[in-house]
Design brief:
It is built from 3 helices and no strands. The chain has helices spanning 2-16, 27-42, 48-67. The longest helix has 20 residues, at 48-67.
């Protein structure tokens, strides 16, 4: 009986907890998306060299976003 009451109280406490609200897009996320889109536009293509340059572009531009955020 004690176990049933404990479980019921625990379930009631969990039910009373507030529901989390999704976070809105922040400036850092928009900077990240702009960086990826600009690198994709600047270095289109799928050959290995272009893909490697685009990867470096992602790292550099995302680091700039992080530095100025």
């Amino acid at each position: 009986m004690k176990r049933l009451i404990t479980t019921a109280v625990f379930a009631a406490v969990v039910a009373l907890l507030p529901n989390p609200v999704p976070a809105e897009a922040t400036a850092a996320q928009s900077c990240l998306l702009e960086s990826v889109e600009s690198c994709d536009g600047d270095f289109p293509g799928s050959d290995p060299y272009t893909a490697a340059v685009r990867g470096w572009c992602y790292m550099i531009r995302i680091a700039i976003c992080e530095a100025f955020d």
